[in-house]
Design brief:
Distance between the termini: 44 Å
Shape: globular
CATH architecture: 3-Layer(aba) Sandwich
Radius of gyration: 19 Å
CATH class: Alpha Beta
Strand content: 5-15%
Strand order of the largest sheet: 2-1-3-4
Number of domains: 1
Largest sheet: 4 strands, parallel
CATH topology: Rossmann fold
Length: 280
C-alpha cells in the first residue's frame, strides 16, 4: 500500500481526526467498532527497529480498514506504541510499561468508549509478549462494561496458510525478529531493515545454551516464563536468513485477508448476548 493510501486512511478512519459532533454521531451507529493498534517499544535484534510491533499493528490495520466498505462504522485509535516488554529488559532502547499500568490504561480507555456508545472494542496487538496480559485486561474491562464486546487479538494468531510460507521449525520457534517479522518489515518499510540476517535462540547450536527440560517449551502446553537473554545474545529468537520482501508481501496478504474477514463478521454480530447484558 502506498504512503498516500495510508495518509488518506488516517483522515477518514482515525477517531482522533473527527470533531466531537462527528465522533458522537459515529460512535452511536449500530455496530460501532473502535480498534486500538497495540505494539511495543523493544529491541528486535541488530537489524529491525524498536518500533517493529507498533509499526506492524498500525500498517496492517490500515490495510484491513481499506478492505472494508467505506461506510463501515469502524475507527482506529492512535497506536499504543509502548507495551509490556520486560522479557527484553537489558537490551538498550527497550521501554516497558508495568502490567498493572497497561491493564489500567486499557480499562480506562475502554470504559469511556463504552459510555459513548461503542459496541465493539478490538485490541489489535502485534507483540507476542503481551498476549496473556491483554486477554486478562479485556476480561476485567468486560466485567465493567458488559454491553460492549472486547476482543484482544494477536496479529499472527489464526491466520490460515502461514505453514505454507514459513518452515515448521521457524513457525514454532521463530518467536522474535526471525523470518516472518524480517520479511514483513522488508515488504512494509525496507529502509528500516539492516543488512544483518541473524540466527539465534533455539536455532543456535544446542551446545551453546541450555535446552528446556523434556516436555517443557518456550511457548505451548507447558511453557517457561523466559527472558530473551536466556536464549539469545543478539536479541533474535529465530532465523532471519531467508527473509525477503516477496515473502513479506505474501504474509501481509494473508494476514490482511484474515483480519478483514473477521472485522466484517464482527460488525454484523449481535455479541454480546442480550441476556448477559441484562443480568449484569
Amino acid at each position: 500500500m502506498t504512503a498516500q493510501a495510508h495518509l488518506g486512511l488516517s483522515a477518514t478512519r482515525r477517531l482522533d481526526r473527527l470533531s466531537w459532533p462527528e465522533a458522537e454521531k459515529a460512535l452511536q451507529q449500530s455496530g460501532s467498532t473502535v480498534v486500538w493498534p497495540m505494539g511495543a517499544f523493544e529491541q528486535h535484534g541488530p537489524h529491525l527497529p524498536l518500533a517493529t510491533d507498533a509499526l506492524f499493528s498500525e500498517r496492517i490495520l490500515s490495510s484491513v480498514l481499506l478492505e472494508l466498505a467505506p461506510n463501515a462504522p469502524i475507527w482506529s485509535l492512535p497506536s499504543q506504541s509502548i507495551g509490556f516488554s520486560p522479557e527484553h529488559s537489558g537490551f538498550p532502547g527497550t521501554l516497558s510499561l508495568s502490567s498493572g499500568l497497561l491493564t489500567q490504561l486499557i480499562i480506562e480507555v475502554g470504559t469511556q468508549l463504552c459510555a459513548q456508545g461503542v459496541k465493539s472494542f478490538v485490541l489489535f496487538n502485534a507483540h507476542g509478549g503481551q498476549i496473556g496480559l491483554l486477554q486478562a485486561a479485556a476480561r476485567e474491562l468486560r466485567v465493567q462494561s458488559p454491553s460492549m464486546a472486547i476482543l484482544p487479538c494477536f496479529l499472527w494468531s489464526g491466520v490460515p496458510g502461514l505453514d505454507a510460507l514459513i518452515p515448521g521449525d521457524e513457525l514454532r520457534g521463530g518467536l522474535h525478529a526471525g523470518l516472518a517479522e524480517t520479511s514483513l518489515m522488508l515488504a512494509l518499510e525496507p529502509e528500516l531493515v539492516g543488512d544483518d540476517r541473524p540466527v539465534d535462540g533455539e536455532h543456535r547450536d544446542p551446545s551453546a545454551s541450555a535446552a528446556p527440560p523434556e516436555g517443557w517449551s518456550l511457548e505451548g502446553a507447558a511453557p517457561f516464563a523466559w527472558l530473551t537473554s536466556d536464549l539469545s545474545r543478539s536479541g533474535v529468537v529465530g532465523d532471519s536468513r531467508g527473509a525477503s520482501a516477496e515473502l513479506g508481501r505474501q504474509l501481509e496478504r494473508r494476514v490482511v485477508e484474515h483480519w478483514s474477514a473477521l472485522m466484517r463478521n464482527l460488525m454484523t454480530s449481535s455479541w454480546p448476548p442480550v441476556d448477559s447484558v441484562l443480568k449484569s
